[in-house]
Amino acid sequence: MRILLVEDNTELATMLADRFSAQGDAVDVEGDGAGADQLLAHSKFDIVILDVNLPNKDGYSILQSMRERKDSTPVLMLTARSEIDDRVTGLDSGADDYVVKPIEFRELAARCRALVRRRTGQAANVFRHGNFLFDRSAKRAFVDEIDLNLRNRDVQLLEAFLGNLDRVIAKEDVADKIYSFEETPSLNAVEQAVTRLRKKLEGSPIIIRTVRGLGYIANAREQ
Known about the structure:
Blueprint: E1 2-6, H1 10-22, E2 26-30, H2 33-42, E3 47-50, H3 59-68, E4 75-79, H4 84-92, E5 97-100, H5 105-120, E6 126-129, E7 132-135, E8 140-143, E9 146-147, H6 152-162, E10 168-169, H7 171-178, H8 187-200, E11 206-211, E12 215-220
Parallel strand pairs: 1-2, 1-3, 3-4, 4-5
Antiparallel strand pairs: 6-7, 7-8, 8-9, 10-12, 11-12
Helix pairs in contact: 2-3, 6-8
């Protein structure tokens, strides 16, 4: 997942970013409300984890701006504000989930996966096709029950392609999905990452093809 974490508590933000990164997600952190609003106007994420009480612009206003721009990115509000009125305001403003701090990380990660699955029309954490199986929660893939030993970058790429089967994805969009702003990848690095994933998927029905001048397209062939 490519995650934007909008949280002004530096200690909490660092802890969550480290935990998400350790499980293979690309995470950007923004502690300023106005900065987050600008970032969301020009960049794409798989999910936004959004605090309410932020400097310069509160979470409700950020969410309202997103929905007014027709930005349908899933938003999980993570806040200490626990009153029913706060929850109703958040959900009615367009939040997809509303979670009160503190929360156990595994539950937060599971809620994020569920929201991303819902957006891509996938009902379960496990994707199975022929002799191929990918467990999103465990970040593991198997061909003929043999573990492919995916690296974090492999997992990010595989999630991106499985979420966009039969659709062309530009190289630039692939880079946006798997690299955070702190990283400075080249398109050559994207090509190398895709080549490595292709090799690991050999013998599976998941085929990633290069569409010259456009990017990549992944298909799940019949077996």
